[in-house]
Design brief:
Shape: globular
Strand order of the largest sheet: 1-2-3-4-5-6-7-8
Distance between the termini: 18 Å
Number of domains: 1
Order of helices and strands: EHEHEHEHEHEHEHEHH
CATH superfamily: Metal-dependent hydrolases
Oligomer: single chain
Radius of gyration: 17 Å
Structural class: alpha/beta
């Protein structure tokens, strides 16, 4: 690479309240964050993501339905996503997966919609951006059974170092965010130390999970640099090495269609 820059591979910039979108984009650029991927979570987000990728040159999107929102899902949504995903700035299907943290009363429906979205990604030959909260085994088992050809990105990875290595062995990519900077996040620091650099991605999950030294504030893509700095310190390498490796990874698996 001729230029060292960062990519925020998962950021809900449409949910940031304390800054205008123009300010968010400018702050990111000034911090060396040259590309931002915005996932949809709610059905209403789909139109917002499409508007953002059209308005901002360095903003890209994922389209999909978050597991906590599947009660409103119907199959016509798959057709709509399939059509919109023809836009080359839509880089994957996400965020999709399982979430057992908030409500386990509709787990079967979560699984059903998750599988349908995996199959859609396979048909479109697009990566899948995975939301997995307190559902590691079921998430992994469903991907292993139903995913045929889509690159798998474990968004905001929250599993053990052992589970991370299991994911790596299966060919997945691990995306780490602000949690790795938290003082007591020993598990995430172990993950950051152990996984191969060629399987690592960076993200913020803004406006959530703001990294130290801005914890307690609203997160934004510019702060992905603090994630890179922490991982570099943990691995005892330079920030430039982390930036280069993670950007090469993201460019290879996500931006090849642009």
């Amino acid at each position: 690479m001729n230029e060292t820059y960062l990519i925020d591979t998962h950021s809900h910039i449409n949910m940031i309240e304390g800054l205008s979108l123009d300010e968010v984009i400018l702050n990111a650029y000034d911090a060396g964050v040259k590309k931002i991927i915005v996932p949809s979570a709610y059905q209403n987000d789909i139109d917002v993501v499409m508007q953002l990728v059209e308005k901002y040159e360095n903003v890209y999107g994922y389209l999909g339905i978050h597991p906590s929102e599947v009660k409103d899902f119907d199959d016509s949504l798959l057709e709509r996503i399939s059509d919109l995903a023809k836009n080359p700035k839509i880089l994957g299907i996400g965020e999709i997966g399982l979430d057992y943290y908030w409500d386990k009363s509709f787990v079967d429906l979560q699984k059903e919609v998750f599988i349908k979205q995996i199959k859609l990604a396979n048909a479109l030959d697009l990566p899948i951006n995975i939301h997995d909260r307190e559902a590691h085994k079921d998430t992994f088992d469903i991907i292993q059974e139903h995913n045929k050809n889509s690159t798998v990105i474990m968004h905001c990875f929250s599993g053990s170092p052992e589970f991370a290595l299991e994911c790596i062995k299966a060919g997945y990519y691990i995306a780490l965010g602000g949690v790795v900077t938290f003082k007591n996040a020993k598990k995430m620091k172990e993950v950051a130390a152990q996984i191969p650099l060629d399987r690592l991605l960076l993200e913020t999950d803004a406006p959530y999970l703001t990294p130290v030294p801005h914890r307690g504030e609203e997160n934004q893509p510019a702060y992905v640099k603090f994630v890179a700095q922490e991982i570099a310190a943990i691995r005892e390498i330079t920030v430039e090495e982390v930036a280069n490796a993670t950007t090469v990874n993201a460019d290879r698996i996500l931006f090849s269609r642009c």
